[in-house]
Design goal:
alpha/beta, 7-stranded parallel sheet, 41 helices, 6 domains, about 45% helix
Length: about 1200
């Protein structure tokens, strides 16, 4: 019987105030009752959805809760009249709340459900800290970061560097045990941010204990000397008596010296006198062993004594170092205005438990008078501090904590079962949900017996420990039936040992093979069973790999749903790096040969040898690599990657879907990073860095391949909240040492003392080690409970006598000691519950192979495509037209001044002529200058520029200014650009970029518009006519130049492009484009007539006509009563090098576009153009 009384949950009658704790065993319908409590709060307490705080611990869980609440409220609203007659819960509500009021309240709730206060605990803390920034002292612009790995790593490295310089002796001591920052991080990183005292034994205490031990050994020998001499000396010949007496005296002297000075322990210890071989057959052996026990302890301790003392001094330095690192991390996060998830919780907990927090607490409880907390068993101490502060003794407030202590399995994340037990003790009301609605009756009975610890007719035993009792779970009145009629519910599969020797861990593969064989048998014999109904629950990635290998060998397809492997450490990343190196360095034989032998290319050794011997074929491959490099440089990473995927990469084998998923994920991440790292070499270097570093990041976890109709492999932690018809637990008797991580002992020992206070020590004694181990073993029992209760119908638990099986999850559940027989223990379970539990002993394991069901393809026909592909449909752009290309795909913003037909401007060519001391004329020609200026103008505010900020990133990105020039020269030039008048007739009005507010302009405007069989002949004719008119307007001779337009007859598809700037001024809308073209070193070189000549040479007039159509069509759709003459302002081409306010409109080309011309253009691109032969 539980020390704390629980009542069966009656959700219709429970008080809607005070602190409630609801213990909900697996499968008992937590969410079902959460939705009902939520409904009562809406209808009885008249709370809004914004006032009912619902919290759980994952984003997925919050979305599921939101969906379930939404569905339940809608069902209640739509079926209210029927529900109050058929369901007692609704009948009770109807007695309190009239139907018309119910419907009004439900409609209000559904209307505002998107604003419902349903959060993760971190989401709630973030909301409070941001909404009440003044009260909580939180920075307004703080950034939430899930990972703080980089900051912690830098802080550790910084401490190591500082220590090596300022305290070299201490550094030598620390590095003796933790040589590198990485070694330090592996042992102590989880203590970074830990705010409680960290205990370390004083070296002086260690010395004193050893000296005391030596003194005690000396005293024991003196006291027992008569007996020792009687047994070991007196009966010997005189010469040997003399020798042994001397040995005894030497031993006493050595012990006395050690008790006076511990360093003497490093002198040779005289051990002959208490050598066990001298009394191995003595009748008083046990007495002698007892007398020498203290001496043997001294002998055992002396060898490691000095090293242990040095380690204690090092650990003292570590505790100081952790404080230093913590301060550094806090300061770095403060400077970067960054908060981690833990910071959110700690900050709010500290604020609410401060003596001055009462006003904020009243505000928050008024905002959230009632809270529902799901999965409460996963709460840590800080999270409970928040809830306790808000809902302790606050009038008209309520807190419902729902959880199951038997499922508290997240200790490694900070989940604290002791916090749960404290909350349970402090609760006003305690309820229990004890009916399982999802499993069969036999399955429920089976796991009841396993975790009850005794026959179900007897008294329950404390299987779970720590005050967690087990209450027998009832089956639902209408339990589901089994789909496997030939199997019991709980099946123990035992593998016997030979000669009672412990089974080695290598036997796990045989157990995995048995699982595969059993699954094959079930799928063959049970037609209703599908692969997706089966789950194998493992404890770690190593177990998962063994299971996956066995299933693969048996021909069974599976998916590992809990794979948290980092993508950067996958084989695909390992292979992609040398392949990309080969693409970037095709001229290097070393890189090219390595790439050709890359597994991703699937070229066999024989094929490679053949290609290597064929010079033509070898050069063809090399040219392909050269082409890929060119695509990467000119069109970006993803274009090259897709080309690479289609032309070279060949993925074969059983894991082809996994490899394809990883590669596409890699391409996605690299493409995203390429927006920041434009140069291919930079991107490749970054990829190599990721491959070499340990960077846990959710974004780079391996993505799942398709899981449809596949056997599931899931970690037991990951399976929590899930359910499967058939569950396998393959390695239930594998014991893990909780005091070791991998092959190393854990240095930081965390445990709870007898007062249930959390403690951390770096120099644990046996009591602390035992306490930590016991807490870990108890959690392993809870983890087994979670695993077994995932089974709806059948569970197969595999057992064998692994080393220390009594410390395994099943061994601890069965309360076995080291000498207890495992088979007898599980047989006893089956004997007590023969209808639900069975034990099968497996002698031989044969590897079987499963033949997947194949479709009947005897009469199958290849599908025939009957659609119509428009072969003449293209995505084109000005660039494509200008270069006489039919299709170049999606265009990029036009930033490189096209040197087509112009030899005067070579890309990236520095100017060596007289530039009059002006940066504008000295700046490098070509794409670099264009990109620099475009990036600055794209992000700057014309009206209130901050050039130092606007220029910082572009200058870092595109390089330094020419020698002799500083950033101030660039700022002056930019001031000239935004201050230059744009239209000559409006210079008095000071119409310049500086008058354009950001709210009245769009930058880098991307557009598409359809092309309906546009006649290239008509387009050419139109452009020539337009040019004649432009030459007449600007009083310059007509330029006789061949147009470089496509040779085919018509264009069909979509026109695509980017306009640098679209802005509105005095009700008119203008198209504006920037040009960094160098036309000369004098402002007279940038007069409108010179600009018109350059525009026509490079077909920019075609470009602005296309832009005009795009803006015209947009304005027609967006502006009511749009008319071109009233709203279309015209075209501005800004030659940035020539813009200077004192030179008037130098560098500015402006042309108006009449409504007639716009109408003709619009018709032309709609294939309805009729040449009117009038002045346009």
């Amino acid at each position: 019987m539980s020390a704390i009384e629980f009542l069966p949950l009656m959700v219709a009658n429970m008080p809607l105030k005070g602190r409630h704790l609801i213990e909900a065993s697996a499968g008992t319908g937590k969410t079902f009752n959460i939705t009902r409590i939520y409904l009562r709060l809406l209808l009885e307490r008249k709370l809004t959805v914004q006032q009912i705080l619902v919290m759980t611990f994952t984003k997925d869980a919050t979305e599921e809760l939101r969906g379930r609440i939404d569905q339940f409220l809608r069902t209640t609203l739509n079926e209210w009249e029927e529900l109050i007659l058929s369901d007692d819960f609704f009948t009770e509500i109807a007695k309190i709340t009239p139907s018309n009021e119910v419907k009004a309240l439900l409609k209000r709730a559904l209307l505002f459900l998107d604003e419902a206060a349903i959060y993760t605990i971190h989401g709630f803390c973030k909301t409070v800290l941001s909404q009440h920034a003044f009260a909580t002292g939180t920075a307004f612009n703080a950034n939430l970061e899930a990972q703080q790995h980089d900051i912690i790593t830098l802080a550790i490295e910084d401490w190591y560097r500082t220590l090596s310089i300022k305290e070299p002796d201490t550094f030598a001591l620390v590095s003796e045990f933790w040589l590198t920052p990485q070694a330090f991080s592996q042992q102590f990183s989880r203590l970074i941010g830990y705010r409680e005292p960290i205990e370390v034994k004083e070296p002086s205490d260690e010395i004193a204990q050893f000296c005391q031990l030596a003194m005690q050994a000396h005293s024991d020998l003196i006291t027992a000397q008569p007996f020792l001499f009687e047994q070991l000396v007196d009966a010997k010949p005189a010469k040997e008596q003399e020798s042994r007496t001397l040995e005894f005296t030497q031993l006493l002297d050595w012990l006395k010296a050690c008790s006076d000075n511990y360093e003497y322990s490093q002198e040779t210890m005289p051990t002959s006198f208490f050598n066990g071989r001298r009394f191995g057959r003595s009748k008083v052996k046990e007495q002698l062993v007892e007398i020498f026990s203290t001496v043997n302890l001294v002998k055992k301790r002396k060898d490691s004594l000095l090293s242990d003392i040095r380690k204690l001094y090092a650990l003292k330095a570590i505790t100081s170092g952790l404080a230093n690192i913590n301060e550094n991390v806090v300061e770095q996060k403060r400077q970067q205005k960054m908060l981690s998830f833990d910071d959110l919780i700690q900050s709010l907990a500290d604020t609410l438990t401060d003596s001055s927090a009462e006003p904020l607490i009243r505000t928050l409880t008024a905002q959230y008078p009632f809270a529902l907390v799901d999965e409460f068993q996963d709460t840590d101490q800080d999270q409970y501090r928040i809830l306790n502060a808000l809902y302790q003794d606050q009038e008209n407030t309520g807190l419902v904590m729902i959880g199951d202590p038997k499922q508290a399995i997240y200790g490694f994340r900070g989940g604290d079962i002791f916090t749960y037990m404290a909350a349970r003790k402090a609760a006003t009301y305690r309820w229990r949900m004890n009916t399982n609605w999802r499993s069969t009756k036999a399955m429920i009975t089976g796991y009841n017996r396993l975790f009850y610890g005794n026959a179900l007719s007897g008294q329950a035993k404390a299987v779970f420990g720590f005050g967690i009792d087990y209450s027998v779970v009832d089956a639902s009145p209408n339990p589901r039936s089994s789909i496997l009629n030939c199997e019991k519910a709980l099946n123990f599969i035992h593998f016997p040992t030979e000669d009672d020797k412990p089974v080695t861990q290598s036997f796990r593969q045989s157990m995995a093979n048995w699982c595969a064989n059993k699954i094959i048998s079930l799928l063959k014999e049970q037609p209703e069973l599908r692969a997706q109904d089966i789950a194998l629950l493992v404890r770690d990635g190593a177990e998962a790999q063994e299971i996956k290998q066995a299933l693969k060998q048996a021909g069974l397809s599976s998916v590992y749903l809990s794979d948290r492997t980092n993508l950067w450490h996958s084989e695909e990343t390992q292979h992609l790096i040398p392949l990309l190196k080969g693409i970037l360095n095709p001229e290097s034989d070393r890189y090219f040969c390595s790439a050709m032998a890359n597994p991703l290319l699937a070229i066999s050794p024989s094929e490679y040898y053949k290609i290597r011997g064929d010079d033509l074929q070898w050069q063809q491959y090399k040219q392909l690599f050269i082409d890929l490099k060119a695509i990467w440089v000119s069109q970006g990473f993803v274009t090259m990657a897709l080309k690479l995927m289609h032309t070279l990469i060949a993925i074969k084998g059983h894991e082809s879907e996994r490899s394809l998923t990883n590669l596409l994920h890699l391409f996605e991440l690299l493409q995203a990073k390429s927006q920041q790292l434009r140069q291919p070499d930079e991107l490749l270097h970054w990829l190599e860095q990721q491959y070499q570093q340990e960077l846990p990041d959710q974004e780079t976890e391996l993505r799942l391949e398709s899981e449809e109709n596949l056997i599931k492999i899931v970690t037991q932690h990951g399976a929590k909240g899930l359910e499967y018809p058939v569950v396998f637990i393959p390695f239930s008797t594998r014991a893990k040492n909780p005091l070791r991580f991998g092959t190393k002992n854990i240095q930081a020992i965390t445990y709870h003392d007898e007062n249930e206070h959390a403690r951390v020590t770096l120099s644990a004694d046996e009591q602390a080690l035992t306490a930590m181990a016991n807490e870990a073993y108890a959690e392993s029992i809870r983890l087994l409970y979670v695993a077994v209760t995932r089974a709806e119908q059948h569970c197969f638990v595999l057992t064998t006598s692994f080393d220390k099986y009594h410390l395994s999850p099943l061994g601890k559940t069965l309360m076995l000691s080291a000498n207890d027989d495992l088979l007898n223990a599980i047989t006893q379970l089956a004997h007590e519950q023969p209808n639900e539990i069975t034990v099968t002993v497996v002698e031989d394991i044969l590897v079987e192979h499963y033949q997947q069901k194949q479709l009947d393809v005897k009469n199958a026909e290849v599908a025939k495509f009957k659609g119509n592909i428009e072969r003449d449909w293209w995505l084109t752009s000005f660039t494509a037209l200008n270069r006489n290309l039919r299709d170049v795909g999606v265009s990029q913003p036009e930033r490189n001044d096209d040197p087509l037909n112009s030899q005067s401007e070579l890309p990236n060519q520095a100017l060596n002529v007289d530039h009059q001391g002006l940066l504008r004329f000295a700046l490098t020609k070509g794409a670099v200058a264009g990109n620099l200026l475009h990036d600055i103008l794209e992000h700057a505010s014309f009206k209130e520029p901050n050039w130092s900020v606007d220029c910082q990133w572009p200058l870092n990105k595109y390089g330094a200014l020419p020698d002799g020039f500083e950033q101030n020269h660039l700022y002056d030039w930019l001031d000239d650009i935004v201050g230059t008048p744009l239209i000559e007739q409006q210079t008095i009005d000071n119409f310049s970029l500086s008058t354009i507010d950001n709210s009245r302009c769009l930058k880098e405007v991307e557009f598409y518009f359809p092309l309906e069989r546009v006649s290239t002949k008509a387009l050419t004719s139109f452009l020539l006519n337009h040019r004649k008119q432009q030459c007449q307007v600007h009083l310059m001779p007509e330029i006789q130049r061949q147009l470089y337009l496509p040779a085919f007859k018509s264009l069909k598809g979509m026109m695509h492009g980017f306009i640098d700037l679209v802005f509105e001024h005095q009700g008119k809308y203008y198209v504006c484009d920037y040009k960094s073209t160098h036309l000369g070193n004098d402002f007279s070189d940038y007069l409108p007539s010179a600009l018109l000549g350059d525009i026509q040479r490079h077909h920019y007039d075609l470009q602005y006509l296309i832009y005009a159509v795009a803006l015209h069509r947009h304005l027609k759709k967006q502006l009511p009563n749009y008319h071109p003459d009233q709203h279309f302002g015209g075209i501005l081409y800004l030659y940035l090098r020539g813009m200077q306010p004192e030179q008037g409109t130098s560098g500015v080309f402006y042309t108006s576009i009449s409504s007639l011309l716009l109408t003709q253009l619009d018709s032309l691109f709609d294939s309805q153009f009729v040449e009117l032969g009038v002045n346009t």
